[in-house]
Design brief:
Layout lengths: L4 E6 L30 E8 L8 E8 L2 H15 L9 H17 L6 H9 L10 H10 L6 H19 L9 H24 L2 H6 L8 H20 L22 E2 L2 H26 L3 H16 L7 E2 L2 H10 L6 H10 L3 H6 L5 E2 L4 E4 L2 E5 L2 E5 L8 E4 L2 H21 L20 H14 L7 H14 L4 H8 L4 H8 L4 H13 L5 E3 L5 E4 L10 E3 L2 E3 L17 H6 L1
Parallel strand pairs: 4-5
Antiparallel strand pairs: 1-2, 2-3, 6-7, 7-10, 8-9, 11-12, 13-14
Helix pairs in contact: 4-5, 5-6, 5-8, 9-10, 12-14, 12-16, 16-17, 17-18
Length: 572
């Protein structure tokens, strides 16, 4: 028990004049002097710490049914009051703690938790309030001023769309793994609801989810990463002891493998598009005839055909298909941009953001130091995606020639526009010299590919194609990694080796060729015999229709007469 306080017992009995007798009531004790457990309640008296010169304060609280409980409450209050700094520096905090204690006694609630109050006091938070997940995320996000615009946009959308709606009202220090798991289960349930509406919903229901995308494993991993970062920062400020986002179990987000548009896949794609065209025509007829049932079936079939048009999210053209595209786009104004991406694997934002000061055509090099990033529809200039993204790309002779030709075209446009031409410094610009909008570059690429009759790929897949072509040409994977600006060659291998199976087969053949053999293998996979003549071979003898090469006497089960078990025979 604290040295600044004491406990005593009293009751509510009154004397003849109506005054409470308190601690002097004779019924508080038994005849033997022991306390009477059936009469009166226990109180504690505690001297509150005050600053020098302030009036002395004493706290008295009671209603406890035992001396031990009164002493425990006194010690708990005394411990809470010891948290703030002594003297004037801690006066405000002590006053706030006293208000919390008074409120707890008045409402008959537990006293404030010592560790929680201490943590709040040390981090400068209000001792009376409860910091919620929403309050912390809002404060945390507003303080992230040094983030790249794209990263901030990603954090903000995760906080607004998922973290606050599902976790916002919870006290930050009460956040548990189960809460985070429940959030992802709710996201999965919403995915299933959207899929069901698209499959069987009414037109109005389908319109309501028209632009809603399913939140896949990769997106959920990014949402978890945002929460993990926010909670790590909370731990650094001692607002939390454990980061539950690092503990929650989630399905892994596998990077989609690049798949090449092989002859078989192109054939299937053409059949898919042909059937889609037929279904669209049939849908128009069904609507004309007001056959709603038939129209719904055809609409779902068209959606299924669109969803299965590409075997993988990441599709890659063959060398021949890439050549077809470049030939078709040769007279396109921005042909040089698409040529650069197709052969050297620049990202869209890097190609749009590169400046003439970053290229040395005589040396055949291009330095990637800037990119144009699309945020919604707005476009901002920024640094490359990662440290590895800032790199020097070596150009082949044809690409240098293409860029020289493009430079002459741009200079001619500049002369034509005169003073109205904007000197943005970019290699690839609009006719008036202003920066390109990345979305327009993507849209035009899609039109060119469709006009060439090629199977669909994304503009970013043209970059994947550059990596595939380099690997097929025998370029070392480390060189390809540096060309693409990947942080690790592991990423390059995992993404692209699946689309170059001939490299794996060639490696297998080279490996097999290293092993010296005296017995060859026929085309049917069976041994054809020795490559060298054998000597001193005993002539085989026949027994019935079986070829026997000598051994045990007739009647035994195995060539070894000491082994009688069939199982041991098989193992011998």
């Amino acid at each position: 028990m604290s040295g600044r306080g004491s406990t005593y017992k009293r009751c509510k009995c009154r004397d003849a004049n109506g005054r409470e007798v308190g601690a002097t009531c004779p019924r508080l004790r038994r005849a033997d002097g022991a306390w009477n457990p059936k009469h009166g309640t226990w109180y504690f008296r505690l001297e509150v710490p005050v600053s020098e010169g302030e009036q002395r304060q004493v706290m008295k609280r009671g209603g406890f049914d035992s001396k031990d409980k009164a002493e425990a409450a006194q010690d708990a209050v005394d411990r809470l009051l010891s948290i703030p700094d002594p003297g004037p520096a801690g006066a405000a905090a002590r006053a706030e703690i006293l208000r919390l204690v008074d409120d707890a006694f008045r409402r008959r609630k537990p006293l404030p938790d010592y560790d929680d109050v201490r943590r709040r006091d040390q981090t400068g938070q209000s001792l009376a309030g409860t910091l919620t997940v929403e309050q912390w995320l809002t404060s945390w996000l507003s303080g992230r001023r040094k983030l790249k615009a794209a990263t901030f946009r990603s954090y903000e959308s995760h906080v607004r769309l998922y973290l606050v709606p599902h976790l916002g009202p919870l006290p930050l220090d009460k956040l548990r793994v189960a809460h985070v798991s429940d959030m992802f289960e709710a996201i999965d349930a919403e995915n299933r609801r959207i899929a069901e509406i698209r499959a069987t919903g009414t037109d109005s229901e389908r319109a309501a989810v028209k632009n809603r995308r399913a939140v896949g494993p990769a997106s959920k991993q990014r949402i978890r990463a945002t929460l993990r970062k926010a909670l790590n920062d909370a731990m650094r400020q001692q607002l939390l002891l454990v980061n539950v986002a690092t503990i929650v179990e989630m399905e892994s987000a596998k990077r989609p493998k690049a798949v090449v548009w092989s002859v078989e896949r192109v054939t299937a794609w053409k059949a898919n598009r042909a059937r889609r065209a037929e279904a669209v025509a049939e849908l128009a007829d069904a609507r004309t005839l007001s056959d709603q049932y038939r129209a719904d079936l055809l609409r779902r079939e068209i959606e299924h055909l669109d969803a299965t048009e590409r075997p993988s999210p990441v599709m890659v053209w063959t060398a021949e298909q890439t050549g077809t595209f470049l030939d078709h786009a040769h007279d396109e104004r921005l042909y040089a941009l698409y040529h650069l991406i197709a052969l050297r694997g620049l990202r869209r934002g890097e190609a749009c953001g590169v400046r003439w000061t970053d290229v040395d055509l005589d040396a055949g090099t291009l330095v990637v130091s800037e990119q144009l990033v699309q945020l919604g529809w707005a476009v901002e200039s920024g640094t490359p995606k990662s440290d590895a993204g800032a790199r020097t790309v070596h150009l082949d002779a044809e690409t240098v020639t293409v860029l020289r030709t493009w430079r002459r075209t741009q200079l001619a446009e500049r002369m034509q526009w005169g003073k109205a031409w904007t000197d943005s410094g970019r290699i690839f610009t609009r006719e008036d010299g202003t920066e390109l909008h990345p979305a327009n570059v993507t849209s035009r690429f899609g039109d060119l590919a469709a006009d060439a009759g090629l199977p669909p790929i994304r503009l970013h897949d043209l970059r994947h194609g550059a990596a595939t072509l380099a690997l097929t040409a025998g370029v070392d994977v480390k060189v390809v990694q540096e060309m693409l600006g990947h942080s690790s060659s592991v990423l390059t291998r995992d993404t692209y080796t699946s689309v170059v199976p001939e490299l794996a087969r060639e490696a297998a053949e080279r490996t097999a060729a290293l092993i010296p053999r005296k017995r060859s293998t026929g085309t049917d996979g069976l041994p054809t015999g020795s490559l060298e003549p054998k000597t001193n071979q005993a002539a085989p003898r026949f027994s019935g229709n079986r070829l026997i090469s000598g051994g045990a006497p007739p009647g035994t089960r195995t060539p070894n007469p000491l082994i009688k078990s069939q199982l041991l025979c098989q193992l011998s």
